[in-house]
Amino acid sequence: MLTLKKNEKYSVEITGMTHEGQGVGRINNFTVFVEGAITGEKVETLIIKLNKTYAVGKLLNIIESSPSRRKPFCEVYKRCGGCNLQHLHYEEQLKFKTNLVEENIKRIGKIQDVHIHPTIGMDNHLNYRNKAQYPVGSGDSGINVGFYATRSHNIIDHPVCHIQSEVSDKVKSIVKKFILDHKISIYDEKSEKGLLRHIMTRVGFKTGEVMVVLVINGSDLPHKDQLIYRLQSTLENVKSIILNINTQNSNVILGSKNKVIYGSETIIDTIGQFKFHISPLSFFQVNPLQTQVLYQKALDYAGLTGNEIVFDLYCGIGTITLFLSQKAKKVYGVEIVEDAVHDARKNAQLNHIENVEFMTGGAEKVIPEVYAKGIMADVVVVDPPRKGCDEVLLKTLIQMQPHRIVYVSCNPSTLARDLKYLEENDFKTSEIQPVDMFPHTAHVECVVGIHRKNCL
Ligand code: SAH
After folding, report:
1. Which atom of ligand 1 is nearest to the CA of 291?
2. What's CA 236's distance to the chain center, in Å?
3. What spacing in Å lies between the alpha carbon of 189 and ligand 1's midpoint?
4. Residue to substitute in 256, 287, 336 for testing ligand 1 pocket (most ligand atoms within 8 angstroms of CB)
5. pLDDT reported for residue 80
6. Quick check: CB of 196 below 6 Å from ligand 1?
7. Nearest atom (ligand 1) to Cα of 321
8. What is the pLDDT of residues 224-269, one digit of tens each?
């Protein structure tokens, strides 16, 4: 019998944490999720949502605190939907991530005998992001520019974000002042009217180059010369200012069309010894310091000697491809976004790399075609989006029988699902290295070494 009531307070012991970082406990044998509570704590909670199988409670008081708890560093921690693990010491965040990976690999992947290394963290885990996307909306004080509140489209106006680069926050305040001074209209999701939707920044951490993208519901920005002047005269190294046209009423931030209003259409940054052109629509890892750690691991697990044909699938702008090219005979990169493939080809030229070739299309479509033509890989690297690899692709790889597969994943559950499938078909997972690309959030990236069973 369910005795739990909405809007009532309860005390609850937190016995675990979800993959998103919420505390989980049971009241009268009924599951309750409490954001901000930590395993081992006893807390007072107010039930704010009650479903048939679970309840959601708001954290009111910590009755018995965990030694893992620390004071969050951000003033808007409770309202912003961003860094929801800030109340954990950084070392504890890393342990949480390692456990999360282990739990998925065992429960979904049914793999018991694999070495999962402790998550590699950062020494300085603030200001690590090179890309910011600030939604813009009407607010009490004129306009709000900042972040969406947890699970909503309410925009929290906030001048500083501690995980963003400092220059991104400066861009945000310059653009905000420009909007107010020139009375630029703000897009309203409900009426679908108004011009400005988002401000996006990309910053090259090594080169210092800055890109500013204004996402607009229209074709032009009034007084744009004023904006260009203000950005350029206040900040060093603004290399690219772009209007991105998005007139669709959807949650997708960027439209497909860009208009360069100042400078070039890309900025350049380096990872390791390589330089990369980055354009507004292409994927580029958001934490450049940890990216180098991640790619180095991928290269180690690929175990290349210089004679191999390698596939780099879901290759983005060819970052991993170029890393692999140093030690391979030839690397084929496959990517679905045309702009990214364009950047990838430019990046190979920029770095004078000749043993790479890029193909545009879904990996699940391109690889079966390539395989049918008789091109086969000795080593395959996959780095899919959150939904993981398509089964058609995995089937083709199983037929192709590469010696090794390196799986780079941003989602432990789809990773575990795909590893299970590979393990059922002649492959063995050798080791898993989680890397913390997103400190203070519950996200974790993994690099996985996989080999064909008779082929270590
Ligand atoms: N390896 C790259 C990119 C990883 S992100 C890096 O480290 O930078 C995943 C990439 O997969 C994105 O660039 C996305 O555009 C691409 N992608 C998504 N679905 C795809 C598919 N079905 N086939 C090929 N690429 C795809």
Report:
1. 7
2. 27
3. 29
4. 336
5. 83
6. no
7. 1
8. 999 999 999 999 999 999 999 999 998 899 999 999 999 999 999 9
pLDDT given for residue 159 in this prediction? 81
Which pLDDT tens digit goes with each residue over 265-297? 999 999 999 999 999 988 899 999 999 999 999
Q: What are the chain's domains?
A: 9-64 (2.40.50.140), 94-123+287-452 (3.40.50.150), 131-271 (2.40.50.1070)
Concerning whether 410 is annotated as a catalytic residue, the answer is: yes
Centre a 10 Å sphere on the Cβ of residue 306 and count the other Cβ atoms it contains. 8
Query: What is the sign, positive or negative, of the torsion defined by CA atoms of 313, 318, 323, 329?
Result: positive
**Minimal-distance CA residue to ligand 1 atom 22:** 362
User: 266 CA to middle of ligand 1, Å?
Assistant: 19
Q: How far apart are CA 88 and CA 74, in angstroms?
A: 13
Counting Cα atoms < 13 Å in the Cβ hemisphere of 162 gives 17
Strands 131-139, 196-203: pairing kind: antiparallel
Residue 429 in tokens: 């997972």
Residues 6 or more apart whose CB falls under 8 angstroms from that of 60 comprise: 9, 43, 44, 45, 46
State residue 158's pLDDT score.
84
Beta carbons of 318 and 358 less than 8 angstroms apart: yes
Give, as one character, the DSSP assignment of residue 235. Answer: S
Question: What is the DSSP secondary-structure string of 126-180?
Answer: SS-BSEEEEEEEEETTEEEEEEEBTTS-PEEE-S--TTB-HHHHHHHHHHHHHHH
> d(Cα 217, Cα 186) in Å, to the nearest integer?
9
Q: Specify the residue for token string 């992001």.
A: 129
Report the C-alpha gap between 279 and 291 in whole angstroms.
18
Q: Which of 80, 410, 446, 455 is catalytic?
A: 410
For residues 185, 232, 284, 352, the Cα torsion angle rounded to the nearest 10 degrees is: 140
Cβ neighbours of residue 326 closer than 8 Å, sequence gap 6 or more: 299
Answer whether 364's CB lies under 8 Å from 340's CB.
no
Q: Which two tokens stand for residue 236?
A: 């060093």
How far is Cα 186 from Cα 124, in angstroms, rounded to an integer? 36
- According to DSSP, residue 318 is labeled T
Q: If you count them, how many residues does the chain have?
A: 456
**Which residue numbers in the chain have pLDDT < 50?**
none
